[in-house]
Amino acid sequence: MAEIILNNITKEYDNGFQAVKNINLEIKDNEFVILVGPSGCGKSTTLRMIAGLEDISDGDLFLDGKRINDVPPQERDIAMVFQNYALYPHMTVYQNIAYSLKIKKVPKDEIDRRVRETAASLGLTELLDRKPGQLSGGQKQRVAMGRAIIRHPKAFLMDEPLSNLDAKLRGQMRVEIADLYQRLNTTFIYVTHDQTEAMTLGTKIVVMKDGEIQQIDNPTNLFNYPVNKFVAGFIGTPTMNFFDAECVEEDGKLCLKTLDGKIELTPEKEQKLKEDGWTGRKVTAGIRPEHLEFCTEEQAAFKGEISVFELLGSNAIIYAQCADGRVVMNTNDTVSREHGETVFMKPREEKLHIFDPETERIITN
Amino acid sequence: MNTHYKDNRSLPVRILSVLGKVLILGTAGIFTAFPFIWMIVSSLKTKADILNTDIFFPTDPQWSNIASIIFRSPIPRYIFNSAWVSLVIVGLQIITGAMLAYALVFLKFRTNKLLFGIVMGTYMLPVAATYIPSYIILADWHMLDSFRGLIISSTVSIFGIFLLRQGFMQIPKGLVEAARMDGASHWRALWEIVCPMTKASFITFGLMNFISTYNNYMWPSLITKSSEYFLVSQGLRAFFIRDGAYGTEWALVMAASAVVVVPLLVLFAFTQKWFINGIGGETGIKG
Amino acid sequence: MAAKTKYKRRYDSLPTVLLFVLPALIPLIVFWIYPILRSIWLSFTNWDFISPTYKIIGFKNYLSLFKNPRFFEALWHTVVFTAGTLLPTIVFGLILALLLVKNFRGSGILKFILFSPWITPTVAISIVWSWIYKTDGGIANTILTSLGMSPLKWIASSDTAMLSVIIVTIWKSLGYSMIFYLSALEKVPGELYEAGALDGAYSWRQFVDITLPSISPTTFFLTIITTVNSLQAYDQIQVLTQGGPAGSTRTLLYMYYQLGFQEFNMGQATAVAVIMILLTAGLSLIQFKASEKWVHY
């Protein structure tokens, strides 16, 4: 139920280090926004500035049109779920969940009703009298969410809420969070370093690196149309294959020359490269493992020997040692292959990404 | 590393070492306990017994000595004075100390480090050096010879600030942040989140400062002159040098000391763990 | 470091900070910081407490102190007293802790007994000691004679009075240093004390190489605390000897008390206070500097 706008927000520490550099972000009402990036990219700092736990060095932060830079956290009506849950160890689960309402002086019977309601929706009813020390990781996680939900806040902030859970539980809680978002219909801002989590949960993903926003987009666009090499490499597993290639003109047609062979280009890509004057120059090309296919020796862009073969059931991952380095392929062809076997691969032309090797920006997707 | 040393020395050596240990601990124990024991047995002696040091235990226990201290001397009044003045002082010290420690650990402000430096610096200073000007201040405020003056000049405990700061630093910052997100002000976060989590530091602080305020002598004796405002140490000394008691009424003096000391020993017996764990464990002494 | 920044820092709001800081800071300023500064100021005056006016007389108070043999006597007594209490308190405290670190039947009671002097009023217990020290009919002399030694005059003679006060002070502070060492020893890795300090299964080398370095922060802390406490010892001196006989137990602090609150020579008294402050600061500084060599955090 809130619209949050970050306007040229910067965070600079006393030692001069800029954790967040001049970022702009518009979060609409009821949006599920995910801040994702490697550690140290400034995503948590951004979240903590929205929460009010970290002061804003420069720029403006608006909540529903009101500038809240100087509003203390307890007056922002925003709830936050912390990475290590931050449950009050001396209070029971009931008291933990009820604490914010107690502060607001909500009548006792209403507190009781809402605590029980919240606990029931999270499956915590049995645990209300326990102390946090007696709970498992997943249960603590639910209590932390209950503590946030009960307030009906304007926005939910979640700081790596699943990173302390084991893989199985993480998957399960991910579904629960998605479900929660559907039910609550409130603005969510979610921080994670895990791109899978980001891709499965978010409707709007903000990729950050070194304190700067790289790209803001939905999962499909991020995956298909990365704006630079960093985003292309960060999103998707296994990671995109990058290799150097030369734009050469053969018989009036532009193609990319790799060490092992050449890659045909789609007309759109060809035109774009020509227009921008890349003919005869080196570019960085990228292709996702799932967009490689087997081919004949003549067609091959990559020739290599298999170093690792992983069969994952419906698909298989092949790591091959090629002249361009290690190339990873994700294929539906699950025929078992031997270590050392030679494979020939080529990219699907329409899925090829071409980057400027200097700026690492995208030339054409 | 959890090495167990097998004691493979010969029997006589082992016996000797145990004997040595018993001897040292026994001597230290007797040396320490003796004045207490001597105080208690002396307090029950008759005038004749007390002058004859060959008699250790009283031949005819004079319970009336104790009774006369409890019912017909000002000592109970001094104990009462000490007790309630100390309670008030410690209460104030806990509030001021907890707030300053909270500010040092959880608040962000420009002079945070400077403030800690000042507190740290005063910790090392000899308190007595402040007595003359403090005396003048109390005189100017017409608070000499009053409980008010005693209390108002002792509302801060630097030791306590250190103790609490040490305890507060163990609390993950996230908990205070969570409380802030839950809508709690700093004030509530201090008393509803931080304080319950550092209960042990608070109890140690309370007990240690209660004892030292209760026992305090020099400063109270400088600013209070009427016996109705005496704390126990000053009262006891007045009783000790009073005409008649000094030199002749040793049994009564010992009885008075016993009446003062024994309740403290009982209090200590029940609260020992807070002193021992608190002093050694939570004052931030590493090693 | 400290790169100049164009950005404004935001801190917790000033009213909040003041609310949390002032309740302690105001008394701290009024009864600690201001008095120290005032003491320094007064030490340059000839104020006698009664007169409404006084003159600034420069360093005269200090000069007359430095000409006064009483002052150097008191300084010497302070040094003797501090050294005489510091060393035994630390050494015996450590020995007792070593013997008690492993629990055995009765160790709890022993810890209780050894620590109990610390919680009892010094005045009460000094009164008991003055009775023990009595020249005729005091139990101390009875014990000495029964052991075949000649009786001492204890607090009644200037030869033994300082020793008597030191004994009481050690008696009182032994338990305190023992408690600190106990908790430090418990944190020393490995059960090096398995067999106890006295039976050679635990060797002297291990003690010097492992134990002493790992408890050195505690030793450092106790050295400072005991020094500061010794410089400020008053209660036991006041009850046992009042600085006598013949000034043999008059320390700087006691001299300060006599000058200020008996003779009302505020100028000289505060001059002594300032010297005490300098002494404490100097000793702490030396100990801090020295600690870099032998304290292993």
How would you explain this protein's 3D organization?
The complex is a heterotrimer of chains A (365), B (287) and C (297). Helices cover 25% and strands 33% of the residues of chain A. Chain A has 365 residues and is α+β, with helices and mostly antiparallel strands. In chain A, a hairpin with a 2-residue loop joins strand 17 (316-322) and strand 18 (325-331). The longest helix of chain A has 18 residues, at 167-184. Chain A starts with a strand and ends with a strand. Chain B has two domains: 2-42; 72-280, MetI-like (MetI-like fold, Orthogonal Bundle), CATH 1.10.3720.10. Chain B has 14 helices and no strands. Chain B has helices at 11-43, 47-51, 63-72, 75-106, 112-124, 131-140, 147-152, 158-168, 173-181, 186-197, 199-215, 218-223, 232-241, 250-281. The longest helix of chain B has 33 residues, at 11-43. The model of chain B is unreliable at 1-6 and 282-287 (pLDDT under 50). Chain C is an all-alpha fold. Chain C is globular and about 65 Å long. Chains B and C meet through helix 1, helix 4, helix 5, helix 6 and helix 11 of B and helix 1, helix 3, helix 4, helix 5 and helix 7 of C.
Structure at a glance:
With 365 residues, chain A is an alpha+beta fold.
Low-confidence stretches of chain A: none
Strand content of chain C: under 5%
Name the chain pair with the biggest interface and residue counts per chain.
B-C, 101 and 106 residues
User: How many β-strand stretches of chain A?
Assistant: 21
Mean pLDDT of chain A: 89
Number of helices of chain C: 12
| Radius of gyration of chain C using CA atoms only | 24 Å
Detail the topology: elements first, then pairings.
The complex is a heterotrimer of chains A (365), B (287) and C (297).
Chain A: E1 4-12, E2 18-27, E3 32-36, H1 43-51, E4 58-63, E5 66-67, E6 78-81, H2 93-103, H3 108-121, H4 137-149, E7 155-159, H5 167-184, E8 187-192, H6 195-201, E9 204-209, E10 212-217, H7 219-224, H8 229-234, E11 241-250, E12 253-257, E13 262-263, H9 267-275, E14 282-287, E15 292-294, E16 302-311, E17 316-322, E18 325-331, E19 342-347, E20 353-355, E21 362-364
Helix pairs in contact in A: 2-3, 2-4
Chain B: H1 11-43, H2 47-51, H3 63-72, H4 75-106, H5 112-124, H6 131-140, H7 147-152, H8 158-168, H9 173-181, H10 186-197, H11 199-215, H12 218-223, H13 232-241, H14 250-281
Helix pairs in contact in B: 1-14, 3-14, 4-8, 4-11, 4-13, 5-8, 8-11, 9-10, 11-14, 13-14
Chain C: H1 14-42, H2 60-67, H3 69-100, H4 107-119, H5 122-132, H6 139-146, H7 161-186, H8 204-214, H9 216-231, H10 235-240, H11 252-262, H12 266-294
Helix pairs in contact in C: 1-12, 2-12, 3-7, 3-9, 3-11, 4-7, 7-9, 9-12, 11-12
